[in-house]
Design a protein that fits this description.
The protein is built from ten helices and 21 strands. The chain is an alpha+beta fold and about 375 residues long. It has a single domain (about 5-170, about 260-380), classed as FAD/NAD(P)-binding domain, CATH 3.50.50. Strands 5, 6, 13, 14, 15, 16, 17, 18 and 21 form a nine-stranded mixed β-sheet that branches. A six-stranded mixed β-sheet has the order 8-2-1-12-20-19. The radius of gyration is 22 Å and the shape is elongated.
Length: about 375
């Protein structure tokens, strides 16, 4: 068993890479520590895909249900500033697509089960410079040889730790809250984002389902605002504020999930035969829902470089391939991370002058079409590198 690429992590990005490489006759193997069959989980977590990410999935024949977002309304809950984004402004059908995390994960895994070793993980790996191969030891003492290890095992990446690559991490001192709801907003092709003292509140349409659920909520709240309450109490006490702002009723329909927010990135994505991809290499604030799209952009660039090199019929230089991937993606990912941090700091500030400036800024951008088009094109994945 000597695949060209061994993928650590059988999540969405790992399975996408495996499927695309094998569609191009490049052998891969996924190493996944969880079992092949997991207990059914409640459908709460959602993903917001930009049009380019969805196209990558469409090209693989991935067929799941999506909610289509054609308009996004962003406004300051304590002021008059607002921006309205529309897909018409860039001549596109939709700005983004919302799907259930479980649906996408399940559909991608389905096609890659035969190329996955479950209930094991990479215990160690060693470079063999004489034949340009990496010797990989699995937790069950099985050994495999591979040219490349693709670290797709999330923000606490096992293979990153084994390589001694060190992440740079910072904490937002915020909690992310998410749940699904029935809401009478009416327009099921619009998303809304509200910045307020009660947190950054985003509400987006859900894919059609038999349960008549209509929306998913992602809500980021400063720790200091919820430390005296448990999460459910905080949500129940503060949801009415956003109902008033949206002029709608929001009826919570699922369990409420929560997790602490932080970001991380690596100064180097490569260590010998190892390359970090997606959340293993970087994570950002969920403010704009771009985390999964950065992961797909990474996976796309990685696959493009490998496929191009492998099909060129010239000697396969993995070091050059990995370096090209890192050059294409590292600075772009860091720019997005810093941009999100800027907006988080801007919209969580209680300073009166900053609040005034952000309201003026929002309204000014809303009146400047070329700036709006730049933001929309970038978020949609149209500015590909």
């Amino acid at each position: 068993m000597n695949p060209i690429v061994t993928i650590s992590g059988g999540g969405i990005i790992g399975n996408y890479i495996s499927s695309r490489l094998n569609n191009n006759d490049i052998e891969s193997l996924i190493i996944e520590k969880s079992a092949s069959i997991l207990p059914a989980a409640e459908n709460i977590r959602t993903l917001t895909l930009n049009p380019y990410s969805k196209k990558l999935l469409d090209d693989l024949g991935i067929d799941i249900k999506y909610a289509e977002i054609k308009k996004i309304n962003v406004f300051d809950g304590e002021g008059s500033g607002k921006i309205d984004f529309s897909s018409e402004e860039i001549g596109s059908d939709n700005l983004s697509y919302v799907c259930y995390f479980n649906d996408l994960q399940s559909e991608l895994k389905k096609g890659e089960k035969e190329r996955t070793l479950f209930e094991t993980e990479i215990k160690n790996f060693k470079e063999n410079d004489s034949n340009n191969i990496c010797n990989i030891l699995l937790s069950g003492s099985e050994e495999i040889n591979s040219q490349i290890i693709a670290g797709c095992d999330g923000r606490n990446s096992n293979v990153a730790k084994l390589s001694l690559l060190k992440p740079i991490t910072s904490f937002y001192e915020q909690t992310a809250i998410t749940f699904t709801a029935k809401c009478n907003l009416g327009d099921l092709n619009s998303a809304h984002q509200i910045f307020s003292e009660r947190g950054i509140f985003a509400i987006m349409p859900l894919p059609p389902s038999l349960e008549e659920l209509t929306h998913t909520i992602v809500w980021s709240v400063d720790h200091k605002r919820i430390k005296k309450n448990n999460i459910e109490d905080f949500v129940k006490k503060n949801i009415s504020y956003f109902e008033r702002k949206l002029n709608a009723e929001i009826n919570i329909h699922s369990n409420i999930l929560s997790f602490n927010l932080s970001n991380h990135h690596f100064e180097n994505y490569i260590s010998g035969s190892l390359v970090l991809i997606g959340d293993a290499a970087h994570s950002i604030h969920p403010l704009a829902g771009q985390g999964i799209n950065l992961g797909f952009a990474d996976a796309d660039a990685f696959c493009e470089e490998i496929i191009k090199a492998y099909q060129s019929k010239i000697n396969f230089d993995k070091n050059l391939v990995l370096k090209k991937y890192e050059i294409r993606r590292k600075d772009m990912n860091l720019l997005m991370l810093k941009s999100m941090d800027f907006f988080v700091d801007l919209f969580r500030s209680d300073n009166l002058y900053i609040r005034l400036l952000r309201n003026i800024g929002l309204s000014s951008v809303n009146k400047t079409n070329f700036i709006k088009r730049f933001f929309i094109n970038h978020a949609s994945g149209n500015n590909k590198i």
